[in-house]
Structures
1.
Amino acid sequence: MNMSFLQELFSNITQRDALQRTFGGRKANHTHSDLDDACQALLHSDGEAASIVLASRALDIYHSLDDDNKRAFFESLAKNFAADPRKIDDAYRAYKTDRSNRHLAELFEVSEPRRQELLRRLNLAQGATYELVRMRQDFLSLMRGHKDFDPINADFIHLFASWFNRGFLVLKRIDWTTPASILEKIIRYEAVHKIEGWDDLRRRLDSRDRRCFGFFHPAIGDEPLIFVEVALTKGIPDRIQPILANDHYDIEAAELADSAAFFGISNCQVGLRGISFGNFLIKQVVQELKQELPNLKNFVTLSPLPGFRSWLEKTYRSESGLLTPEAQETLALLDDSQWVYDDEMTNSLNEVVRPLAARYLLKEKNHENLPLNPVARFHLGNGAELHRINWMGDISAKGIEQSAGLMVNYLYVLEHIERNNEKYITNGEIACSAKVRELAKSGRKLLQGEHEK
Amino acid sequence: MNMSFLQELFSNITQRDALQRTFGGRKANHTHSDLDDACQALLHSDGEAASIVLASRALDIYHSLDDDNKRAFFESLAKNFAADPRKIDDAYRAYKTDRSNRHLAELFEVSEPRRQELLRRLNLAQGATYELVRMRQDFLSLMRGHKDFDPINADFIHLFASWFNRGFLVLKRIDWTTPASILEKIIRYEAVHKIEGWDDLRRRLDSRDRRCFGFFHPAIGDEPLIFVEVALTKGIPDRIQPILANDHYDIEAAELADSAAFFGISNCQVGLRGISFGNFLIKQVVQELKQELPNLKNFVTLSPLPGFRSWLEKTYRSESGLLTPEAQETLALLDDSQWVYDDEMTNSLNEVVRPLAARYLLKEKNHENLPLNPVARFHLGNGAELHRINWMGDISAKGIEQSAGLMVNYLYVLEHIERNNEKYITNGEIACSAKVRELAKSGRKLLQGEHEK
Amino acid sequence: MNMSFLQELFSNITQRDALQRTFGGRKANHTHSDLDDACQALLHSDGEAASIVLASRALDIYHSLDDDNKRAFFESLAKNFAADPRKIDDAYRAYKTDRSNRHLAELFEVSEPRRQELLRRLNLAQGATYELVRMRQDFLSLMRGHKDFDPINADFIHLFASWFNRGFLVLKRIDWTTPASILEKIIRYEAVHKIEGWDDLRRRLDSRDRRCFGFFHPAIGDEPLIFVEVALTKGIPDRIQPILANDHYDIEAAELADSAAFFGISNCQVGLRGISFGNFLIKQVVQELKQELPNLKNFVTLSPLPGFRSWLEKTYRSESGLLTPEAQETLALLDDSQWVYDDEMTNSLNEVVRPLAARYLLKEKNHENLPLNPVARFHLGNGAELHRINWMGDISAKGIEQSAGLMVNYLYVLEHIERNNEKYITNGEIACSAKVRELAKSGRKLLQGEHEK
Amino acid sequence: MNMSFLQELFSNITQRDALQRTFGGRKANHTHSDLDDACQALLHSDGEAASIVLASRALDIYHSLDDDNKRAFFESLAKNFAADPRKIDDAYRAYKTDRSNRHLAELFEVSEPRRQELLRRLNLAQGATYELVRMRQDFLSLMRGHKDFDPINADFIHLFASWFNRGFLVLKRIDWTTPASILEKIIRYEAVHKIEGWDDLRRRLDSRDRRCFGFFHPAIGDEPLIFVEVALTKGIPDRIQPILANDHYDIEAAELADSAAFFGISNCQVGLRGISFGNFLIKQVVQELKQELPNLKNFVTLSPLPGFRSWLEKTYRSESGLLTPEAQETLALLDDSQWVYDDEMTNSLNEVVRPLAARYLLKEKNHENLPLNPVARFHLGNGAELHRINWMGDISAKGIEQSAGLMVNYLYVLEHIERNNEKYITNGEIACSAKVRELAKSGRKLLQGEHEK
């Protein structure tokens, strides 16, 4: 279809948003009970015309509340916007007598917390979608640990999952020609490897061997939901510092690259936590890149191993007797802050740390029998395979502290994704290169009494 | 924000849609039970990667089914994709013991028909949103009267109401520079006053005194959801024929118009029946027009009165004794197909028909105590007021047959909309001009024995 | 760079154009001498502000003139807007004494016809570029044969060649999603194979095996300058009727085509005659198609042979004795309007007509020693090669009348274009397939007394 | 017309530009004589296909030259690309005999320096237009003072005036949502009040009381040609510092402003010197602003007075006896770098400097009898009027050094522009407010022996 026609379409939503609620509400001295009243009025409103006005008013009031009043409002959401028990009793009784679709529908309807209808109606106001994402962000920070946290949270998630359906997300390349108003958000939201300002941003984006893509949502406008940074390289890269410095893997032309390395995926909206976009994003970006650069052969991540260092400490260093004395001793070198600059120490550590990391990734599971490491869980769950563990992959302070300096490549092979995913889901089986498997096996000899296993 | 950035965003969704499912599936010899299996697989799939593939497959199969198999599939939706009664029993038991939000959430979750989750998952496939709208269109036509129709229909509506949330709709002006692929749909979907082809379309759109606006949805692309046609006029127009012929109300320049007359509102997607857009559309168009043409003073419809003629027949002509003999006799002139060309007859009829129409609009109510006439119900429900009843407003065959040649102006006065809406909702009170009220009153003397009332 | 930013840029120019000069001027009773005065005022104006106003006024007056007054104005252009002879004499005298760049510059300046400065100044008004193209269209039709035609025409060409510099042209794909306002121009301007209306247009454009591209100019807006229609086929097509009917060469998907056949190139603006775009257009379209569809191997035309039939008549039928009696007799079959439906006749004709066509294309030259046939001249001049002559390639009435039913494929082989072009320019050498050369050779035996050559 | 269609058009030109000549040429060891050869080949090429290739090659070679070789090339342009004297002699002889348009056309053609045809042909290459602008930038800097400078320069100007015709320029609002690639150029090109980086830029652009507009050219892409910065204010502003700090004239909403103050106009392309855009820019921006903000009443500049301080020094301080002793003494306070912080001194200076500035603006003329001050010349030439001279309008170091701290408001009153312009052109009459005229008059008493005049 005509792209330009479509493109034009979307000015409206966002234009409306942009103008809106900028000055409203904040000045007034509202309390949570004003908001309660406004919400009740909204829920009882019959006409759509009135609803929009009431929804705008309620959002304006919410906007003007301080944290205490917001907290009180969330408590009221829990208490006053649940469901009518008598209606549920009646509906269940009818359903029990005749388990028809009709009675099921009634039961479903009356057991829906009224909060959900409230949120749907609030969403009628202009720009409301983003306001509600922000409201959930407040909710997550103000109500964490509150006893009614989970069910209310579930109400948000239930609606957001519909509103942020994958079909409504829009992939957009981000580069140096992207509007500054969006780029400043990229600077702000980058979560993996901090961007130090406009010059650093330009270094990351404005190079023939870099790509960055984000997901956007029509009703949210220029707020990215998630974005990923990609380096085009010859060969699969094993270290992050040259990529960040943009001084090493540089290539003559994008066409000469054979690998696309995803080195940073950042979720931007705290209020959308639990609505997952990363999986779709990676796969769509792979498609985009394949189309632009048919020479690309490897789609791979260069990922941190957060939690590995502390796992290492907790597992092997606090408890003696698990590792061989030599391994134990070598591991202690990590305490010497100079180890990264000392060839001998790094070589020794390499012999011990990488094998243990391979074991950590392949053997350590959480309560659902999925990998303990969250990044591994994410990529393996997407159908990627564990390809390589890179020693000295990230020698920044953060990299050493969290990942003992390691970085991991997860490989996305489009033809294997489905199969990998299925095995992973069904048996928790981890797709893994022979080398990493070998490495894990070699780790055994570091363990006391495991040689025979 | 930068419009062009946003505009660009939306190529993706729709580009994906455009390429997709064009050739797939249709050739295979699938039956409804293949689709059943595919849907069960989709519901039991754990990974997102797999879900997308499974969703695409299911939609492809659906696409290839004939009507009988589709019907069988809808029956299976009713039978096999309801909810698990035992889980409901358990959840209700827990809820009854402790009516907490947690137990409510569980009850809500288990009493959600599995169809809804199925539809949500189907929506993961590319272009699925429109496919599902089309699926509901099939459903409405194939299952009407089926005993389990309503609850399944409610499941569609529940999801569509979220997906087609007002905040996601995009208003777009349609004119002669709109892509042909969209214009041909305008020709096809115009429901009020048929468009006879490209030349007629051009006459309707490509004139300085015409406007047309439609709502579009990002995930649906170039399929309009609803559109409205507007004529800019000096004074509030009372007849549709000059507007359709574009030979009468023509003005030197749009800036000289004082009135915007909405003369046709067409819903385009049968599959979205019950999801209402018209109210929002009118109000947003009023805003657009006010901004473009600050001189506009009247925002008004030129609407048909469908059902009036048959009501007239049923009420007054089949039953004698209600009208005065003179009125009864005059009414009989309607049977003479030549009456529109006869001044005497039209004058006589005018004396009788318009007052009765005023009474019809103001007094005749449906079971919810709302106006019997659906067009009146729509506009009055939006907060408009009944402004004028125009004799010989539409002398086309259809106009005479349905509306006894009358057309009605409903006036949208922005400052009164909310108040009108409230009164209408609360007491069923109809906002109405003094003249129409007068007219209705004058109708009393046509009724036998009503003079004294 | 950011495309969307650029795209937005161009609203302005054209928006301004669109609104402008729509109502102005026409009502007044102007004569050519009013226009003369306005032009003199414009030429003598010093300030830019004033110039714009004066330019607009002059164009408005021009617009309101009838043909006689326009003709008088063009005569005045010839007479009153030439150059000042005394200044030329002075400048030449100075130049003759000292042939420096400074004196050359002066001579150049004073010998520039004042018409050129006038046209440049007229071009300051909004939308003037298109107005001036239309003015030249008038000029070409009203002044043809006029004794001062050529120099004035040269003044237009001199300026248009700068304004319509290839760097300012914009290639745009035209398809069913293109605005109707542009598509109606495609219908109107198609010059090779008439388009019969919207349905026919859709058949030509809205198919996966069709492409259409046009050149546009920023200051002209939605008026195409030239466009080309392309069919994607398996193998090089030899007949136009199946393509026009869209019922033969249809392919499963564009990706399966190995050939792109250019079957119609239409210049749209008479006023731009002599400013050539076709060469650039073809080459740019080849680039676009290669990028979209890497499988394409052949870029080829399916071209008519206008003038061949009349050449045939004139050369061989009016003069007896050139052809062998048998050939002469066969050729006479062309007079039988039924020959296309008679296998025997078509077979006989094929034996005679194709070889003669090959000779016509390869041997018949114009006064510049270039091919007599204009279509051949165009494509061979672009560096294409004569690939195949197709019997019964176009059996429409027009095809038979002009081209004796033949169509010709010219092949664009990117790597040969430059070499072909050079040989053609230098020696008039025609790049040609072995088969066509063979065919031409075989034609010799149709000629009396040429068997031995 | 359909804007989005148009907008899409323009991707091509610039996309081509962007990719182009990025890596080419620079590595080779070319000299000016290689370029000479390439240019001669280009001029002698017959086919368009070949021309484009040759043009690209020539530009690549130019690109790779060092300054000495570039200088040599420009000298060769002067020497080897002039015209053929014999042809000129012949053409003149024919013209002298018969002064017809035909002979004039021939003379014009042969006296056109071949450089012009060369530049036109170079412009066939992709992205060439901008390359040629850059070439002229080199020319201006490398050849200044060279004896053949002017005529070659005139050749550039002759062509650029056609290519950068006002009708091809595109006005574009620049704000915080503009692509970063363009914003960084705004930072770089701002000539009047330096922008200190991204934060300063944001302060200047991203505020509801700021506007910035630039002219762009389709064939040049994202390089602005000129841009203007505007502050929306209540009342006509008299000081620049609060505007730059964005801390004073801030208004609640753009709609509340009554004045638009143009406080910086920056030409961006040195290579386009002599092609004037500022006049068109200001007028088009006034139109844009009037449409967006109908409440605006004043369109005014806040302009520096460059050269005033040095004029003051030269005229009055170097030559004693012109001013009264008191005035002379007061003027000497300017030497005290602390005067801006001293109320007494500033008050005294005010009494002397402003009246002298008024005289300077109204009385001091250049050799063409136009105002000596270039900024005044520009705005008055555009039809603006001298509205107010503001004491302490710019107390930056630069403001004090160049303008003695003054800033001037020039007022653009649309209805007066033409009249002002005409009077200015015809008699050099300066449109001026009564107050400034009064001020100038009051200056007389500062002059010795002028009291009686």
2.
Amino acid sequence: MRPVSLSIPIDRESPIPIFEQIAAELRARIMSGAIAAGAQLPPTRAFALQLGVSRSTMVTAYDQLVAEGYISGRRGAGFAVENIGDVSLPSASRAREVVEPVARLLLPFRPGEPDMRLFPHRAWGQAVSRICRRVPEAMLGAAPRFGLPALRHAIAQHVADWRGLEVDPAQIIVTSGASDALELCLRVFCRQGDFAAIEDPGYRPLREFIAAQGLTPEYLAVGAQGAELPLQAKIAVLTPSQHFPLGGSMTPQRRHAFLRWAQQNDGWVIEDDYDSEFRFSGRPIPALASLDGQGRTIYVGSFSKIFSNSLRIGYAVVPPELQQRFADVQRRFGMRASLMPQAPLAEFMQTGEFYRHLRRVRRTYDQRRQFLTDALRRDFSDVGTFDDHQAGMQIAFHLKNGLRDTQVAEQAAKAQVEVESLSAYCAEDRGYNGLLMGFCAFDEEEMAQALTRLRAVFDQL
Amino acid sequence: MRPVSLSIPIDRESPIPIFEQIAAELRARIMSGAIAAGAQLPPTRAFALQLGVSRSTMVTAYDQLVAEGYISGRRGAGFAVENIGDVSLPSASRAREVVEPVARLLLPFRPGEPDMRLFPHRAWGQAVSRICRRVPEAMLGAAPRFGLPALRHAIAQHVADWRGLEVDPAQIIVTSGASDALELCLRVFCRQGDFAAIEDPGYRPLREFIAAQGLTPEYLAVGAQGAELPLQAKIAVLTPSQHFPLGGSMTPQRRHAFLRWAQQNDGWVIEDDYDSEFRFSGRPIPALASLDGQGRTIYVGSFSKIFSNSLRIGYAVVPPELQQRFADVQRRFGMRASLMPQAPLAEFMQTGEFYRHLRRVRRTYDQRRQFLTDALRRDFSDVGTFDDHQAGMQIAFHLKNGLRDTQVAEQAAKAQVEVESLSAYCAEDRGYNGLLMGFCAFDEEEMAQALTRLRAVFDQL
């Protein structure tokens, strides 16, 4: 069958990204029947040329429609329109008034944000609807202590497959995001006035939790091997797989040094493994917890980066002998995680939809990382340097020539470019002076535009 | 049309309550077509007699099926089977393996629990499915600061209609349950070492939050007028509509005294209005916040009691001039509430389904309260007394004749009866010695069985 011939209007001034304009137009025509089920779509290269967009934009648009279930196929072999007889069209206009969609306000290069435009909303909606019909009480019934058993099973499988952690589902505690898990750990292990060691620079809410609990922070400098060992604290919160926000992983030597430290000092390591699923080349680095034979490490994971931040689902993996202590604290303070996302998420993981999505965004984010790092090397080498760790969701771009990161960030914000200053992530003066640039939530077109504006900011400083 | 003739096997030894056995059997026959659409069901009184169950059990079973949409009608006029051609039957047996429903482990008389068996699961599932189809990004997109606008609108409407509070939706902050809102308030107003005043007896997690934040609790004794005024603290957390756990409301004089105290001392009142929608007779008592013309009261509400505890959705209503302070704290500590329940909940409220459910459970809970208070007056007056406040979700039953509440609670637990001891809700020795008995999550049959066992406990002490 010859591919259908299509003309799609593109508005380059629109705030809607071009790939989304293309996907929206194709989606509308498929749903209205204007493009019939079974029709072949034009190949990405030819279609991109015809519309005057980059090929990667075209690929992203097709990938989006594949994820949503409107088309099937793959690059090279061609894409065809699915039979979508069962799609429910939006019925009432009133409906749209009742719940308006949330406006997208992200600016490039906000760090740590996934691109929810790539999310398989239709497949997720179907999973949620299936649960609603089949086991509605799993979404609203009594919330079981530590989370829905099905989700705890799926997470145990996930950390075994992806992080080399062989654990019993009974060791999993479902929390309201990783930050809830980190706060829970601090409450279990620390009393008023205790020291708690955290990396500096590091994840800022941790400093707030520590201050709010009346603990004294011990800041660990981060060198080429990773964070330094604590001298006073009995608890250390670390990001060994990929340091936040600098990037780079802790060396095996330092990992073992931390495990020895914990063992010899009756200490505890909290491993905050916030986005380690995003490693774009080489072998995955096993979790520090997987090296620990002494039950001194609490592993904390999150779905905020790899799935959706607004679900508010994270988890802690707790050594068996600590389960009672965690249960006591959780009972005293109350459960924070909503039950509602847990059953659909478990099903999404168990049916493999979750992993299809994860593989897809990994591929896309890798392309975006490549695009950003190429551009930084090509057009920004006079103002800064960076290490490409081929992992994570952001680049720490270190400024040179006396440029001040806070000043650059401030000027960039005026030009609608969001770069966070590295120095803002430090509690003490560490000499870090750079920009944290997220590359996941923005496509190449958006980043290109933002880079042009950022270049102008540098040229005017 | 003559009512169909039905025989339903009832297992009185089963842990499944009888009304649910009846509802399950009718539901299965309706779904299989064994009872046809349009068929009249037997009248409650005759059917109850035939099956040998109480009429209220029968009414609860029918009400359940009405809420789920399987039958329609009302007591007196008769009930008929709906056309359920569009019901999706559970398709694969595999599906049930993926997500098992959560087991019901509640024992009478656990306090503060709604009866999720009465929940309109089918209508809720349909609302969720509609959102999934129409605006899927409203469930998983970027979480807006302070919560989904549609839900904040619905909550503003709710507190206006139910609590006499005229507020702008911009003043609403959606939180992960009321406890998250209370913790947020403490973080906004208190620094390490400050006093925070809370009622004693009172809601126990508050004591934990206060200790965990390095604050000093000032315990307010609770008398006939309500809580006493603080002497040292600048912040007081109160339950004026219905004291927790004693019951009873704060007098207007004391309410005004608290507002004057706040105004004259630069103090703040946090009004924890956790279940005030459950007032079964007389006029609703307006929120304390509705009397406050000075912006000194933060109103905290929750969906945990009136809807579902496992959604984890509550809210704070913040005076306009404090919004920035709350926003700052929320940004520093991070958002806890999941976005996913917010759009369906907003729609449920706006379409009125929410209020149909609320009116229905109010009626049922009122019957259950009546049943429990009648039984306590009739069969337990030798061992204790209580005030019937005709509100709330539990009865504080004060023991007499030298009985010790902790001992009774312990023995009751052995007999599979869950009564919490009032003294456990006190931080200081206040002379409270009683049992907290929840009546909402249990039907009359369940309570009758539990009361028989509780009576035996008293007889053996």
